């Protein structure tokens, strides 16, 4: 009789336990779904910030080089950003000395640690820059220096400068497209839903077009400035 009385109780216990287990499963499923959504959101947010920033840095880096392309007046930027190869190591000329303008039309690199290898490498880099410059070594107030005299601006010099400017602009556009490739790779690896992935890819292309256009606009603006230089 006691067993008969306990059976209904046991049956009720099993019956009430099953909904609790079902509730836990539903709660667990909701947690997984929520985590999945959060992960997708984070992937999208992180990629937007990361890749936008990288592209913007490329544009700003190019903007910082524009002072190099100037035939009307010499400036330190014209020389200090040139790359020089010393003993197989590439560095900017500005890392080897203080660069300044000596009126009326010269740029001086006062060397920190002058050696024949450094002097030769700097002169070679400036001579091969395509800017029709002929550097020479001078001792200025006891400091061994590379002196670069800028010629009177001519149409030929201006055209050569514009050619260099366009070439450098193309290099920076290529950097933007390399970032686009990495961005698209990150989208594929994130395994986002098809619609979300397509939206990210479209955003990637829009941003690529935007930043390539910014570089093109900087090139055009500098070209107009150079075109106004009269011989």
From TrEMBL:
Residues 66-226 form the Ribosome recycling factor domain. One of its GO terms (cellular component) is mitochondrion. It comes from the Eukaryota. InterPro entries: Ribosome_recyc_fac, Ribosome_recyc_fac_dom, RRF_sf. Pfam families: RRF (PF01765). Keywords: Protein biosynthesis. Signal peptide: none annotated. GO terms for molecular function: ribosomal large subunit binding. Belongs to the RRF family. This is Ribosome-recycling factor, mitochondrial.
């Amino acid at each position: 009789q006691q067993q008969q009385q306990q059976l209904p109780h046991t049956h009720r216990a099993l019956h009430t336990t099953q909904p609790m287990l079902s509730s836990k499963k539903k709660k667990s499923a909701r947690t997984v779904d929520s985590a999945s959504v959060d992960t997708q959101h984070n992937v999208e947010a992180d990629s937007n910030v990361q890749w936008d920033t990288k592209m913007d840095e490329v544009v700003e880096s190019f903007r910082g080089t524009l002072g190099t392309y100037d035939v009307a007046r010499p400036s330190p930027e014209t020389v200090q950003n040139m790359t020089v190869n010393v003993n197989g190591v590439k560095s900017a000329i500005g890392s080897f000395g203080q660069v300044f303008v000596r009126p009326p039309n010269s740029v001086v690199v006062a060397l920190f640690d002058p050696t024949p290898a450094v002097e030769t490498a700097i002169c070679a880099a400036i001579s091969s820059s395509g800017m029709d410059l002929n550097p020479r070594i001078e001792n200025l107030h006891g400091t061994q220096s590379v002196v670069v005299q800028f010629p009177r601006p001519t149409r030929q010099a201006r055209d050569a400068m514009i050619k260099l400017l366009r070439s450098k602009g193309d290099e920076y556009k290529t950097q933007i497209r390399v970032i686009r490739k990495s961005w698209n790779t990150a989208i594929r690896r994130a395994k986002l839903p098809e619609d979300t992935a397509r939206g990210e890819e479209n955003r990637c292309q829009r941003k690529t077009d935007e930043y390539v256009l910014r570089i093109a606009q900087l090139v055009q603006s500098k070209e107009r400035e150079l075109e106004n230089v009269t011989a």
